[in-house]
Input
Amino acid sequence: MRKADKYANLAAVFGPVIVLIALIPVAIQHDLLAWSDLIIFTVMYLICGLGITVGYHRLLTHRSFETYKPIEYMFAIFGSMAIQGGPMDWVADHRKHHAHSDAEGDPHSPHVGHGSGVLGAVRGLWHAHVGWTWRVHGMATHKKYAIDLSEDRGMRVIHYSFPFFILVSAALPFGLGVAITGTIYGGLTGLLWGGLIRMLLQSHVTWSVNSVCHFFGNRRFDVEDKSTNVWWLAIPSFGESWHHNHHAFPRSAKHGLRRSEIDASAMLVGLLQRFHLAWNVVEITPERQEQKLTSANPTAPRAEAGPHPSA
Ligand SMILES: [Zn+2]
Ligand SMILES: [Zn+2]
Output
């Protein structure tokens, strides 16, 4: 990969974050950011982020573990509050991504149909990062890619209540702000940081997994797509940036397969398991990982079998 392509990729990811960090002192100076806002931001980021990574992704898309229905619905509601689409749309798009990774039909590959050179790389990254959300988001059919969810009445209700959860996602940080500070103004800054900025930043991180983690980083398993592991995204993405590991073993509840690969989502699944709230947690033995290493066994099977072959 050319250096210029990598720089274009990094600029697209770091640019908005640097702008946000630069604006923080200005916000403090103008009384637009207080400690209460940081608390609200963190709480909302955790709830909605884990709703996506543990709920939408590992539980609903890949069935990496099983849990009680009310917990499954709770995760689906938390995921909805991240405002990345209703659960059936998100799951269908993501299963389609795994079924056609970096090939024709992948809803958000940075590598397919965007031309070559720096311009092609920038176009591909833009599409993978955010462009796909208004071009092809939600176009993977529920019947083909999310039949298990669409046959679940409770999940259908949550999915079609998505506009209501957008309101909840805004009302909650506002309410928390009012409760902590006792003022409407505190509610409004809570809404700004715990609602709007949290939503933009969180979407940026999720989109970065789609773009950066198919473009820039390390690989060690024998998989056909271009997925990569990106260590510096591991904390904000709650472990989702061990994306190459994930493409190698899509049903694994752990995406960070080594001790050094921090994976907060896997930690939460482990915690649920310890309290008997999660079971049938899919784990990949060291022997299976060894078999799939590129150099150790280049002829290893390429796809992970499971109840959702496309997942
Ligand atoms: Zn991927
Ligand atoms: Zn996945």
Summary: Strands lie at 66-67, 278-279. The two ends are 28 Å apart (CA to CA). Residues 97, 101, 214, 227, 243, 247 surround zinc ion (ligand 1) (CB under 6 Å).
